[in-house]
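thread: overnight batch results

M.L. [08:02]
morning all. the overnight job finished for the chain we discussed friday. pasting input first so we're all looking at the same thing
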Amino acid sequence: MMTWNVKRRELLGVGALGVAAAGLVGLPDSTSAQNRSITLVEESAIPESKLFTSAFADAGVVSRIVRVDYSLSGLLYALQNSSGLIVGLTSDPAAMIAGQLLVERGANPRLVWKHHYRSGRWHHETESAPRLLENVALAWPVAIAHEVRDAIGGKSSHRSNRCYSDSCALAPSSPGMLVSWAYEIGDILS
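M.L. [08:03]
and the structure it wrote out:
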């Protein structure tokens, strides 16, 4: 078995290219998230990713959780045979790698939302309710988990939204640049 060791710094420059190559489209109103198998991807060293995964899993049906570390070594292997909805809140390199791998396998991008930390606040670019994240500080991944579930279930308003969270300090292990994302590939459950 081949071991992959992908470093975050090596991939930062190609993050935008990966998103462009994915051919992102709007969120279609299709079968709800409840009718698909759901795989969550968690970057375990990132507190926001852990919080997102926990909130998403607590609020719905999840088939499995894939936990990866900073090396992202397990990501390629874990997603090789995944199907249904694959969802995560991860660093930009992890999101880009997952997107490229899944699109290559025929997956359709359902959403890609960006979250950047600057000037003491999180800046969010989503397709969610306006001002949803303005009154949250470090708990924003919980709100994003619920919004992602609604969006992949066809309940999103599909309007672009940019907002800032309340002031908060950046967690020491946070990269300060995260992406919430979802891809759909085959395996619709009855």
